[in-house]
Structure formats: C-alpha cells, structure tokens
Write a structure and sequence with these properties.
disordered N terminus; five-stranded mixed sheet; elongated; single chain; 338 residues; alpha+beta; 11 helices; 16 strands; 42% helix
C-alpha cells in the first residue's frame, strides 16, 4: 500500500498526455522526504517534435512546398556551376578552363606584315585604315579592351610610365595605336581612354601620336591572327582572357619586337624602338648599346650580350696597347735625337 501511494504521488498524467508531478505531499508513512518531491518537479519534461510545416509556419509553406523549393535551389546551383565551367573562345566555340588559359598567349611572328587594309573607327568615330598609321615612324601596337578590369589598364599604365622616362616623343619618334578586342566597345569610350592616358603622359603636344581604335569582330580577329595575339572570351564573367604586352612595328607595318608583360623597362622600350626604326631614330650611343644587348624572343627583353662585350673590350684593349706602343716609339725617337 505504501508503494502504491508513492507511485501515485510521483506521477499523474495530465490532459495532454505528458507526465505531471502531483502537487500534494506524500503521507508521512511513506518515509520519502519532501526535498525529493521538489527535485522531481524541477526536472525538464520532454515534448513531442513539431512537423516541418509548423516550424516554417511564419512563411506559410507546407512540407511539400519546402521540398520543391529546395529542389529548385539545388538545380539553380548546379546550372550556375555548369555555366561557369564552359568558357568560350571569341568565335563562340566552348572550351574548358585549361584550354582557355592556354589560349591567352603571344605567338611570335617576327617580320610578319600587319594587314594595312584593315579598317577601324578611331576615337572620333572616323573610319580609318590601319595602313594610315604606317610610314614615317615605328608603331607601338597594343591589343586590349577599354573596359578591362585587370591587365589592360596595367599594361597601358606601364607603357606610359616607361615612355615618360624616354626623350622620344609620341608623334615625333613613334606612334601608339591601341585596338580594342571587344567589338561592343564604341568610339566614345575610346576617346575617354585617350584623354586619360594623354593626361598621364603629360605631353599635350603629342596627342596626334596616340590612337585608340574600335572595330568589328571579324576585323579584330584578322589583326589578332596576324600579330599572334591569342585570346578567349569567358561568358560566365563577361571578360576576356588575353596576354599582356606590346608589339613593336616597323614604319612599314612589319613586326619587329614583342615586349611581354610588365617586366620590360625603358631601356628595352628604347632599344626596341631604335631597332624597329632601322636606326632612323636614336643616337650613336643607341647603336653601340644594340651591339652590347641582344633581343631574347623568349623573355621579350634585351639581355646583355656577353660575347659582344668581350669582343668590344678586346678591341678597345688592342687599340689602347697600339696607341701606347706608338707613343712609346715616338718618345724613344725624340730622346735618341742629338
């Protein structure tokens, strides 16, 4: 009887089916202290789990709707990943990421003729033939696009910085021709870029030597193929993957030198222009330097020609010894006279 009284006092089911502790005290005959009763009353009670629809009741969606939206979200994520893995070349042919990165490169075509009959729009919107920039002076050709967020601004900034260190002036000793590889860009954007880089160059009288062109996709492709400029368009990020550097042309429009990336300095640029001009610009010192430096087509820079320096040093040493012998001989003749 005492055990039954204890069980009835400890647990009584409530109306919701959960166990509720009895609020009345056990009789003194049971022998259980009141402290045990208070500890049991404070123990956490288990509650039944709520369905998913109850948890998202604030959004008023059912379990079936929640699962359907989750499936749609997963499909959208898979579609985004699939689209990002399919960049294309400028001709629209899909390729994987590695192929696109390998496509962004220079293929050297030294002494190749740049087609003079290609037509573009200059910064004023006027139709111009590329051959109109050939003739009196060498040309620095830049293949880029004006809305590029990465390499193109750095490429032209680096060019302007090196040109400012030279005594040569645009429009006098050379011309700069930039061609956009993005057929969507218009002359107004080209004009804005020209003004920016002219201000950076800080030689206002040289404006006639700077040209920023836009054109049709087919024309751009022909020029890129002629100079060995390989690039690709990535639709997923709306950007072009392309190499960085300059192409130096002779006054007749033939490819003389490539200067890659941002590693070249003012000496490389100066010697490249002197060579491209076939000695028509520069000084006698430049001609001597060209004998001491040689163009490395792999690096796109001018390296010290060790053997040339050794030969030049040998020649100077021979001349010095010869001059010394002549002077010594003359001195002996003078001292031997009565």
């Amino acid at each position: 009887m005492m055990r039954a009284d204890f069980e009835n006092a400890v647990a009584e089911p409530d109306a919701h089916g959960s166990t509720r502790r009895s609020s009345h005290r056990m009789n003194s005959a049971s022998g259980t202290p009141n402290a045990l009763k208070r500890v049991e009353d404070r123990m956490p009670q288990s509650r039944p789990a709520k369905p998913i629809s109850t948890r998202f009741s604030a959004f008023r969606i059912s379990d079936a709707e929640f699962i359907r939206w989750l499936r749609l979200l997963l499909l959208a994520l898979m579609g985004t990943l699939w689209a990002g893995a399919a960049p294309v070349f400028a001709d629209g042919t899909p390729h994987d990421q590695n192929q696109m990165l390998n496509a962004a490169r220079f293929e050297q075509k030294l002494d190749a003729q740049v087609p003079p009959d290609l037509h573009f729009r200059d910064e004023s919107g006027r139709d111009v033939g590329l051959g109109s920039y050939f003739g009196p002076r060498p040309v620095i050709l830049i293949m880029a696009y004006y809305n590029c967020p990465n390499l193109c601004p750095l490429t032209i900034d680096n060019l302007v910085g090196n040109l400012r260190k030279l005594a040569f002036d645009a429009a006098n000793q050379f011309s700069v021709v930039a061609v956009s590889i993005d057929p969507r860009e218009k002359p107004a954007l080209a004009a804005a870029k020209k003004q920016r880089y002219l201000a950076q160059y800080a030689r206002p009288a040289t404006a006639a030597g700077w040209h920023f062109l836009t054109g049709q996709e087919a024309t751009i492709g022909r020029l890129a193929q002629a100079v060995g400029f390989h690039y690709a368009y990535d639709k997923s990020i709306n950007q072009y993957s392309h190499p960085s550097g300059l192409i130096l042309l002779t006054p007749r429009g033939r490819i003389a030198r490539y200067l890659y990336g941002f590693d070249y300095g003012p000496t490389d640029l100066r010697l490249g222009l002197v060579e491209a001009s076939a000695g028509h610009i520069g000084s006698a010192v430049d001609q001597v330097l060209l004998r001491c430096y040689r163009y490395d087509p792999v690096t796109g820079k001018y390296d010290v020609a060790v053997m040339s320096i050794v030969r030049l040093g040998g020649m100077l040493t021979t001349l010095a010894i010869g001059a010394f012998v002549v002077l010594l001989f003359r001195h002996e003749r003078k001292t031997g006279e009565p």
